[in-house]
Every structure is written in C-alpha cells, then in structure tokens.
Amino acid sequence: MRDTLTEKKVRLAPQTRRGKPTLTLYVCGVTPYDSGHMGHAFTFSMFDVLVRFAESGGVRVRYVQNITDIDDPLFERARRDGDDWRILAERETAVHMRDMTALGWRPPDVMPRVSEEIGRIKAAATKLHAAGYAYRTDALYFDVSRYRGYGRLSHRTRLSMLRKLREEGLLGTVGPDAKRDALDFPLWRSSAPDEPSWPSKFGPGRPGWHIECSAMAMRYLGDQIDVHGGGRDLKFSHHESERAQSESLTGKRPFARAWMHTGLVRYEGRKMSKSLGNLVKVSQALARAPAAAVRLYLVSHRYERDWDFDWAGLTRYARLIEKARAVLKQPDGQAAPALIKEFNAALADDLDTPRAVRALRLAIRRRDAAAVRWMLSILAGSASLV
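-> structure tokens emitted (386 positions)
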C-alpha cells in the first residue's frame, strides 16, 4: 500500500502475535452527528476490503475503529437542534452501525467511544505535560515546537497549516493567556455549560480532539501500530497532531508503520459533506439498488482518489449484481486459478480495487461461480445481492 508519510509503496509485514501473523489497524470513525452518507461508506468499505483480503490470506487483523462522541461538531449540532448530545450521538451511532451492517462489513474488533475512555485520555495528557511537551494557560496545549517534523505527514508548510486551521475555525488565539503558537493544539480544555465535563488536575473540562485517538489506539493496539487510516481530510490537522503527540508520549517512532487515507466523495461538483448539506445517504442508495451493488460501486474507485457519486453509476452496478446472481445459481465447481491469481494480485498491489472489480467482471463473463463467490466475499463482504 502507499504510505501517506513517505509517499511510497510499503509492504505490510504482519507481526507474529500468539503464534499467528497479525496486522493492527486503527481507523478514525464517525463523529456521530450526521452519520450515514456515502463519503463515510466509501472510507469504511475500503478498509473492510483491506481487512477481508488480509484475513483471506491467513493474516489476523486486529481492527479498532472509534466513535468520537466528545467533539465540537457534535455539541454544535445538538445545540442547534435542541437535542441532548448523548441522545444525538446514540442515534447517529446506530445509523452508522445499521448502514455498515447492510453494506456487509466485518465489524471492527473494538469500537471505543471517547466518552468511555476519559481516564486513559487524561492520563495521556498528564504524561505529556509532565514530560514537558505541553503547557497550561487557558487550556492544556501541546507544544508543537517540541516535536520535530510537524507537518511532514500532511506535506504542508507552516503557512499552509495555518491557512487550513483558519478555514476550519481551529486557529484559536495566541497570547499570554492562550496559545504560545498558532499551531499548538489543546489536549484538555474547559467545557461550555451544556457540554460534558470531567475533573482533572488541569481543571474541569473535556479532552481535545486529537489526544482522544492517540489514547484509544495505544490502549487497544499498543504503542506502535501497523496501519492508521481515515479520510484524507483528517491528514491535517487530526492525524498530523496525533502522530506528534503519540511519538512524544512513547518515544517510539514510527507511531504508525503506514498511513492510509481515502479520497473524498463529491456530489453535484462539490465535496459531499455535512456542512454543505449535499449528502447522499446510504439509505437513499439502498432504496434504489441491492446492498452489494452499492458496495461494489463504492469500491470500484481507487481508495486514495476523490470521485463523483452519480446515480447512473450505481445503476450500472445493480445490473452487474443481477448478472452475478445468475452465475451464482450454477454449481460452484473449482475456481479458475488464473482468475483468482489476477484478483489477488490486484488487491496486493496497493489495494487496486478497480482492477479487482475487472477480474470479477471477467469471472462473471466466464460464468465461473466459484470465482465470483470468492471475489464478492471480499469486495462486497456479506452485503445482500437482492
């Protein structure tokens, strides 16, 4: 796969754990305030293909995907709609689980919620402060000047990072009673009156966004992990900051042996996003096509590239699933080795799912039921064909 940090292809070498080759994977999950759109589905379907392909080859994947139920966007949406943030988070988490179950994922082994991990998160923030990587003013901030190489993961200059923070409303204030540097980010901060709050040596409040994932990833996967993933919009500032604080916490580099980022899904010429309101919900797609068709349409795109969702494209994959169903009515027999070899070679080469889908099309044309069944089990998971 292609590592975001080095911009080179790297070979994933599973570590032996309990006598079995094991790959550790952490994927940043949803902030549950408006879940269930095709951008989310694309990211998590791609990581599901990675998991299923690795496990089909005898590698155990220890897969962790978090739920960020303590974060500004969730509280802002709850405030706007007059909702209790807990009820909103629970409702949208249920939507996420429902949609991804329909799309046939192999559920993560652990799905920690930030609200249930506060003790670990506080401990991580406290350790950074004690080691001199953080300072306290109006909040507890990570001192970016203490980490050499901040910006390398996202390949951004200082000016570019500042511009991105300004665009996202995360720039904050620099001053004697605030940040020392505009790039510094909060590890612990005070809570608004309608937000949850926990006691800490830094005052009552709640964690900053980035420290949450560091604490959860290290709790469930260890100080170093094989693959860290998420949408490419998380490269900066989330993953950049996570890398810095994690390696500062442990003194071990790299925190992640490979960083994998998925592209963004556009609709009607713009990035599909909650803020723009141009979402296509998974439920809308499932109302028009079988779940396996939705899943195949998603994974027919390169994982790292942005692409445009269109309904005609989904219809084409619904027709492909009809053909696959007809083939699967035949006895399985023995899958043609050449077809399986091509399919496996495609996924082994930087998770080239479009090439793997072409191998599936060829298997359908040749009416090789065993090959079709095998390929669908990885590309579409357990998604329904009807």
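The chain is about 45% helix and 15% strand.
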